[in-house]
Amino acid sequence: MNVTDGQSRPEPTVTVVIPAYMNSKLTNEALESVRSQIYTDYEIILVDDCSDEETVRGYCLDGVQLIRREIRGGCGAARNSAFRVAKGRYIAMLDSDDIWLPDYLENQVRALEADPEVGLAYCHVTIVDQDLKPLDRQPALRILGDDAFQRMLGGNRIKTPSVVVLRREVLERCGMFDEAQVGAEDWEMWIRVTHAFKVHADPARRVLYRTHPNQLTKNRIRSREADVRVYLTALAWARTEAPEAVETIMTGLSHALHRLASQQARRIGLIKAARTLGRAIALCPTDLRCYLYVPGLIFYTLHPRYMKEKAERKKQVLLGLMASDELEHALDNLRR
After folding, report:
1. What CA–CA distances, in Å, run from 280 to 220, 225, 230, 252?
2. Residue 190's domain spans which residues?
3. 216, 243, 270: which is the final residue of a domain?
4. Vertex 78 angle, CA 91 and 48, to 5°
5. Structural domain count of the chain
6. What are phi and psi of 203, to 5 degrees?
7. Which residues contact 9 (CB under 8 A, 6 or more apart)?
8. Could you tell me what percentage of the chain is helix, strand and coil, using 3-state DSSP and rounding each to the nearest 5?
9. CA nearest neighbour of 259 among 226, 299, 235
10. pLDDT tens digits for 73-114?
11. I need a surface site. Which of 67, 178, 250, 288 has the fewest CB within 10 A?
12. Quick one: what percent of the chain has pLDDT higher than 90?
């Protein structure tokens, strides 16, 4: 790992962490949104996750500390690299394709300083296209309060790490991102954080969340598998750290397997989907929703439209079977 000093402040209040890969144009737009903040007591750490030399030369690094990873590890590993050298007492994360509005940092820092028990402050987003034009449909507000931990066990209620500012103590107490998680490492971390700290929810839309064709969340099977991995990791953690949450996590895992089975029926076939659904039923055999999925799996498997889609997607899906096999092994070893 190579570190280039960008003349960061000796003791900044906030460390801004930006992971980047193979897109200097969008990364520079994200950097400019940081430089445009009303609040200015920060350092910026940009972590390049093994981009090529042309991409790195395209970064605008004025006042930026650059870390170049030698092995590609994904966003979680990139953020962790920055966490280890961060100087700020607050840690703000920004994905390289997102944009902060000018009052973002000011409001999140104010919330953290107003209540020492708050470990995580976040705001809402405006979803935009690649040209930063707002989409017609925007997500409803997701406000976490005193029930933040329980609600987070039901799904990721924070749209993107780009809306989150943490206290440094959160990393010291809860740990960093789990680098084995791919695609949902933020949700897994928020589960741990909301169990240990209060959360401040700012309903204002202070971040532009950019959508584009190459986002991981577009791959439905991979996204559903990531959800299952989060529940498996949370289950292992909860057995010692939050035993009262084990049954809730088991139910969540069962529901995540339902959703994965549905996607497998659409894109792979009935045999694999039926096996996944069988695991869901074994976890929660009294949950009638498990059995309601059976007719749907048969429909998706036999309908001509989905049979054609499966044929077109088969090559793409096969590329991900190693990850699926690893996930199935973990599920085989699951014990209540």
Report:
1. 18, 13, 15, 10
2. 2-216
3. 216
4. 110
5. 2
6. -75, -10
7. 41, 42, 43, 87
8. 50, 15, 30
9. 226
10. 999 999 999 999 999 999 999 999 999 999 999 999 999 999
11. 288
12. 67
